[in-house]
Sequence to fold (328 residues):
Amino acid sequence: MKIYRNTLVGLLATAALATAAAAQECEVTLRSSDTHPDGYPTVEGVRAMAAEVKEKTEGRICIEVFPASQLGEEKDAIEQTQFGVIDMVRASFGTFNDIVPETQLFSLPYLFRNQDHMYKVMDGPIGDELAAGFAEKDLIALAYYDGGARSFYNSQKPIDSIDDLSGMKFRVMQNDVFVDMMSALGADATPMPYGEVYSSIQSGVIDGAENNYPSYDSSGHAEVAKYYTLDQHLMVPEVVAVSKLSWEKLSPEDQQIMREAARNSAVIQRQLWADQEKASEENVVADGAEIIKEIDKTPFIEAMAPVYEKYVTTPEAQDLVKRIQETQ
Fold:
């Protein structure tokens, strides 16, 4: 036992020395927060950025990623990043709604035609304009990640057209936009906690819900709601942002390295997300789910006119939505 204890102490001491030596190699260590678990596409995306930054700065700048809310939930992590307590954060646009008002528009249903459309918008001039809004709040937006697309699934029948939604009851998040979206589509919205969805579909309290492929798969909802319609009514981007205080400590050359690495990491993250979606689709299909892909989205989009009229009220917001929709 004594020999084992001495060996263990020796191993721990060696590991501690190795960690200290690695830290000494980095002139700057940036701490990055993520709420998702280890191995999740956003976590691995920032790690890819970290690897490129470390290589291009010859080890001078290191980015240490803390997954699984180790540095706090998204709202807290954002606030800490604004104050420079944390150096970086990866978070959903939805969490920034009270900080950067323009991000509210990205929770509008059917704002993006598909994922390629979202990428073109976020990687173009509109993404640059949004970055300026983040900068006003002491956050430097470096890259936009893919947060997935939410679609409808139910236990009753395939949804091939907007008429199929009439009278059906769907669980949605407690959000006025979502409730109004369901009403515009002719369905009934039933806000409820996520943990109650499975039993509520199983018992017939609701007909279905809406979420992305991985959530549909991992939650087990595919077991009780076999029909998944790929309408992609909601795509909310995510952002990788650096504290302005941490950013201004970097040289212009290092800032450029960070920007390039972040943009490259977005490409990697999006592919990782696509791979995860594909794996989840294969899982649910193998378990008997029916995927409805070939639908005409036009009637769904046109039905959103009263929703947009209610929530897109200022000339600036109307112009931004118009430019997003016109991006090719």
About this structure: The first helix runs from residue 2 to 25. DSSP finds 13 helices and eleven strands in the chain.
